[in-house]
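User: Could you check the structure of this?
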Amino acid sequence: MMTKALSNHNFAEYFQLYISLVDQSLDVTTALKQTHKKTNGILNLITEDKGGYAYAEGKWTIKELLVHMIDTERIFCNRALRFARNDQTDLPGYDHDNYVPYSGANDRSLKDISDEFNAVRLGTIALFNSFTDEMLDRKGTANGNNLTVLSIGFVISGHETHHINVLEDRYI
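Assistant: Sure, the predicted structure tokens are below.
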């Protein structure tokens, strides 16, 4: 249903880093499901005692990294919903580095964070399944950057892939 090419979608170059990490021959919900499956496979390898590990001074812990992914997905879903509903407001950006210290991630269990991540992803998939082709083509701006609803779905998937690659390379 939603196998739509991004070639005719106008989005800021900044997001190309994330989008390029996703197989764009897939429909957006399949891409979200595939990255979710890979992430859960990696999370199953991490023990609770490793959740507070950071690979270097000043870097996020595994728990903080996961909560950052959850926060970002929620913010991008809000953007997708607003654009799908034809909201033309230039939505504000957010400073992800300022979110982490207030997330309380390190006071939570890795299982609790993983459960929340799974719940958020199921909500994201349901949201994107609710969008028509016309809605997926709608566009808007966030922090002055152009995005379409469809491109947001691929950004979410690619953002996750980016951080899971970091997790694999530097944490485990």
